[in-house]
Amino acid sequence: MKLPEASNFIEQIINEELEAGKFESRGNAIQVRFPPEPNGYLHIGHIKAMCINFGVKDKYNGKLNLRMDDTNPAKEDYSYVNSIVEAVKWLGFEYDQLVFASDYYDRLYEIAEKYITDGNAYVCDLSAEEITATRGTLTEAGTPSPYRNRSTEENLKLFREMKAGKYPDGSKTLRAKIDMASPNVNMRDPVIYRIAHVPHYRTGDKWCVYPMYDFAHPVSDAIEGITHSLCSLEFENHRPLYNWFVEKAGFEAPLPRQIEFARLNITNMLMSKRYLKKLVDEGFVRGWDDPRMPTVMGLKNRGVPPKALKKFCADVGVAKAYSVVNQAQLDSCIRDELNETAERAMAVLNPVKLTITNYSGEEELDFDVNTMQEGSGVRKIKFTGSVYIDRDDFSLNPPPKYKRLQKGGNVRLKSAYIVRCDDVKTDENGEVQEILCTYFPETKSGSSAPTDIKAKGVIQWVDAKYGADVQFRQYEPLLKDEQYPDQDYAERLNPESEKILYGKAEEYLANSEDGKSFQLIRAGYFKKITDNGFVLSEIVSLKDSFNK
Questions:
Q1: Which of 118, 183, 288, 328 has its CA 20 to 30 A from that of 278?
Q2: Is the pLDDT of residue 546 over 70?
Q3: pTM for the full predicted model
């Protein structure tokens, strides 16, 4: 068989296995899964895992299950399931089946009894604290549980009584019987089942014993016929346990193989569902879909194109070693995509009025929709001679080589005319209230009329008569520092992660559909939304600090 060319170490492993005939008994069919726990919203780290798993599915014409690893009923519910399904579909990924670990609860229980029958599991009466205290250290072996040598009959009786609800939470567990002296602490008789009298969002009150993730996850893979369990590097030390659970369950070869890759770490970005949930619960953000959140729904709400996220993950690549990616690289991918697709428009974040004293009437001017798109054409913008410009584009005391408007100087109003500042009106504090200008009719944009009048710079503007009042929302990273030091995230939160401004924008923007993205000339990329009025929410700035 002709194999696709491997582009990373995971695909190289798969190719080697296919060449060795490992999967001939199943027609060389490759099957993977994407298995989030439905206890929170997916974040950008999960996007990398999706790109890897769905990439394998597509490259090898295989299958992929979207599986909810729902083994902790106290923290899981359908709202998280629905958010995960929505996130996967928004990113454009297509899975073959939606399945749940809870689909296999009966089968998992049967396998747990098989472990007991085979002498590979026992019921333990130690508390969680006592189990931790007897587990040992990296240099010292653990202490065997005094209940480790219970008979098969007693273990089966106790385990069935646990299932029947006879015992309170925390009073007993089912533990794997492996090796309390193993150098890998994960192999020191881990817990397989615990008692929890908590209703499950799918199974209700049927169960009061629930499987642990480290057991349910690999066995669910084996039940589904998964060939490759692709996961992040923190599960590397769990691989021997993964293999032990699958082998002792009695599944036929080929057994699923766990392969680890480096997780995605990005500067200034919180990448933990636990901490992200705290941000939501403590009200630091408005919800899981707050535009500042690195969740998939937050990125969607911010206006980030799915294509840019996939491009970013492809550029980062699939590595074995831990590394940190600069957020500037993500922003660059977003900016590149929006530069190709977003319409151009004009808005002024900090407006000051500019009046052309020798202009009367009004007219419509041609404005390029997007010069990066062939055939995108022009649209009409209204011009009355009284406009708003940004305060930063005018200076009473300009520095050397200043290229914007100053008294006695010229500047071009984008797609309109060159104007010269003749006078300025200020208030009692010296704050500029109005800029009085003369315009030069022969300098109309697109005109072929000869003129010696030149302008050093081009600035955006919004017509005073037809412009709309708008709220601007600008964003900075949630975390202040670039690196990820060992300190509580609360000490690193950026109190100025959101900034609200009030300015002016084209009427065209106010009338556009919600969710549409624009490049605001010289201001940044923004998304139009309606939220108690007309709002332009920042997607990404114009400045690109990433060294390609």
A1: 328
A2: no
A3: 0.92
